[in-house]
Design goal:
The complex is a heterodimer of chains A (576) and B (86). With 576 residues, chain A is of the alpha+beta class. Chain A contains 19 helices and 21 strands. Chain A has 3 domains: 38 residues; 165 residues, Penicillin-binding protein 2a (Domain 2), CATH 3.90.1310.10; 341 residues, 3-Layer(aba) Sandwich (Beta-lactamase). Chain A is elongated, with a radius of gyration of 38 Å. The termini of chain A are far apart. With 86 residues, chain B is mainly α. Chain B has a domain of 42 residues. Helix content of chain B is 80%, strand content 0%. Chain B is rod-shaped. Classes of the chains: A alpha+beta (576), B mainly alpha (86). At the A-B interface, strand 3, helix 9 and helix 19 of A face helix 1 of B.
């Protein structure tokens, strides 16, 4: 071919050169655009894209920490966490056809589950609990079916092996493992531990593809050791429950303390509840009667009035007091004894539980002396166990006490204590006249310091007086324990209702100590509103005291100290 | 001559550190795997431990022991105090 001068240049194939250049330029531009986009993606938009990518694949997984165990003083478990699995499903991913198989595994209603899932899917939700707190074995059986959209998260469930026997003291956690009541609540932070977390890469279906890093390893919570002795706790609970049922009482409580150290060995209440089954929990059953309920201690306060009198040095156990004619008028009220006891010595006032006698003693002592003595014994003072709902009680100040108030305080009316406080106050007699703070947690170091309340001699004298209460002449005969010398004080108080004291509702109390020769245990039994003919402390509470004390002394292997029991001498003589 | 040697050494160092890095990453993965396996074992043992603990406390529950002692073994409390002396 020949190129004519006025024709445009063509390429070898005869295409106009400008067209070729144009096409190449367009291609070049496109390539350039792709390059620019690539550069922009890799530089300007890189952080954003990287973040978005991570968001879709990298997950923080929380590893729940195991909650610490609560045990009794010998390591018997009272609250244990055990691993379980929370099964949940994503309604958006799940295949409805597969649900009946899972429902069958878990024992759920298939129709119910399908309906629930469909409703959730329609609402656009992507999380529905299938079942919470499933045993690991069963959960893995379900998960091994590899049904899309069904997942399991590790969790812990709390079990209470001693159930209702320790329910009030140990307390309860909610389904999320947070303390709700009792020590579970008070020591929640201590028991809890720290959850761990790790970064993992997950695929679309939520399966872990690889683990990137571990942010923190789960730290299990601390164990809590209580001073309770589960054996004593169990028998105290059994006897209290039987007594509350027998007398159709509204409630009851018993507190057993180590007489030497002030350790709480048993603390039980009625009615109780089963913390392993949360359905049917009723608030009035969850009340810790031994700590949170306030009672008027009634005559169980008399030993303190007498001890104050002895401590003043103006009275001796043999000092005679004339209680005739069996009543005394203070301001506008008449204070009565059961009958006219005539002339009693100070010991006799305790033996017979003479209201007139202690009224006389308290008048001689004055409000200031009585108040300071009771305050030193911990009446109206917080027991400071750190227990939620711990009652402080009340004791009127000396300036609030007129003659009548003083008289009523001397025999245990017009002041309020919890059963625990009452038992604590009685340890003043068993610890040679001084008093130590109560201890419920073994981790708290026992305090060497013992606050003096009275002299050791007075404490001994009062103990001997308490023993006369269980003698043939006393009000607490039914508190006796064969083989042991037992002392205590009965108390019966009218229950306070809407219009002052109720005429026919009583609180029966027995506070006592055993064995008298070297006290080992202090026990307070309170039965509130017993129905029926028996309502005195000596009739209702004393037998419970006797039964608990008998078994507790045997369990603690305390040697019998009563040599006057015929069978004891017989047995001892027979072997020789 | 000197610069050549230096460059050569640096190249070598780069190569060695690259190889070491590969090795370390691999080692780390292995360790994570081991850790994960052990962690799984720990969880399993923990589960077993708490199960056994609960089982034991159920079996040794005081009510149960009390019943067994009375019914199966015909044990009773001594009804009178007995002290045996040598």
């Amino acid at each position: 071919m020949n190129a004519s001068p006025n024709e445009q240049p063509v390429t070898a194939t005869g295409i106009a050169r400008w067209r070729f250049t144009l096409v190449m330029a367009v291609f070049g531009c496109l390539l350039g655009a792709v390059l620019v986009r690539l550069v922009i993606l890799h530089t300007v938009e890189q952080p954003f894209l990287f973040e978005q990518g991570e968001k879709r694949t990298v997950r923080e997984e929380v590893q729940p920490a195991m909650r610490g165990m609560i045990t009794d003083r010998f390591g018997k478990p009272l609250a244990v966490s055990t691993p379980v699995v929370n099964l949940w499903l994503n309604p958006q991913q799940v295949n409805i056809q597969q649900l009946p198989i899972i429902a069958q595994d878990l024992g759920l209603s298939a129709r119910e589950l399908v309906r629930k899932t469909e409703r959730a899917a329609n609402q656009g939700r992507s999380f529905v609990y299938l079942q919470r707190q499933v045993e690991p074995e069963l959960a893995h059986q379900v998960l091994d079916r590899r049904v899309a959209g069904v997942y399991g998260d590790d969790d812990f469930r709390r079990f209470y092996p001693a159930a209702e026997v320790t329910a009030h003291t140990v307390g309860i956690v909610n389904i999320d493992g947070k303390g709700q009541e009792g020590l579970e609540l008070a020591y929640d932070g201590y028991l809890q531990g720290a959850d761990g977390s790790r970064q993992v890469v997950k695929d679309l279906y939520g399966n872990v593809v690889k683990q990137l890093k571990v942010n923190s390893v789960a730290q299990p919570g601390n164990n809590l050791t209580l001073t309770l002795d589960l054996r004593l706790q169990y028998l105290a609970y059994r006897e209290l429950k039987a007594a509350v049922a027998q007398h159709h009482a509204r409630s009851g409580a018993a507190v057993l303390l180590d007489a030497h150290s002030g350790d709480v060995l048993a603390m039980v209440g009625q009615p109780s509840y089963n913390p392993n089954n949360r359905s049917g929990l009723r608030p009035e059953h969850m009340r810790n009667r031994a700590i949170a309920d306030l009672i008027e201690p009634g005559s169980t306060m008399k030993p303190f009035t007498v001890a104050a009198a002895l401590q003043s040095g103006r009275f001796r156990p043999e000092t005679e007091v004339d209680t005739s004619p069996g009543y005394v008028r203070v301001k506008n009220k008449t204070i009565r004894d059961h009958r006219n006891y005539g002339v009693l010595d100070v010991t006799g006032i305790i033996t017979k539980s003479s209201n007139v006698g202690v009224t006389y003693l308290s008048r001689e002592m004055g409000a200031e002396a009585i108040w300071s003595f009771l305050t030193k014994a911990g009446i109206g003072q917080a027991t400071a166990l750190g227990f939620p709902g711990e009652a402080v009680g009340s004791l009127p100040y000396p300036e609030q006490m007129d003659a009548l108030r003083l008289a009523t305080v001397s025999y245990g009316y017009g002041l309020a204590v919890s059963p625990l406080q009452l038992a604590h106050a009685y340890t003043a007699f068993t610890q040679r006249g001084c008093i130590r703070p109560l201890r419920l947690i073994m981790e708290d170091q026992p305090t060497e310091h013992c606050d003096p309340v009275m002299s050791a001699q007075v404490a001994r004298q009062v103990l001997d007086m308490l023993e006369t209460v269980t003698s043939d002449f006393g009000t607490g005969r039914r508190a006796r324990v064969a083989g042991y010398r037992v002392g205590g004080k009965t108390g019966t108080a009218h229950v306070v209702g809407q219009q002052g004291y109720e005429d026919s509702e009583y609180t029966a109390v027995f506070a006592g100590v055993a064995p008298i020769s070297d006290p080992d245990l202090v026990l307070v039994v309170v039965i509130s509103e017993p129905q029926g003919k028996e309502y005195y402390g000596g009739e209702v509470a004393a037998p419970v005291f006797s039964r608990i004390m008998e078994q507790a002394l045997r369990l603690r292997q305390i040697a019998p100290d009563d040599g006057s029991v015929p069978s004891l001498q017989m047995a001892a003589g027979g072997v020789q | 001559m000197g610069t050549r040697l230096l460059t050569g050494l640096l190249w070598l160092a780069v190569l060695v550190s690259a190889l070491v890095q590969i090795g370390v990453v691999n080692w780390q993965r292995d360790l994570i795997q081991v850790w994960q396996r052990e962690d799984g074992r720990r969880a399993q043992l923990q589960e077993e431990n708490s199960r056994l603990l609960l089982e034991r406390s159920t079996l040794t529950a005081h009510g149960r022991i009390d019943q067994l002692a009375r019914k199966k073994l015909n044990m009773t409390e001594p009804d009178k105090v007995q002290v045996l002396s040598q």
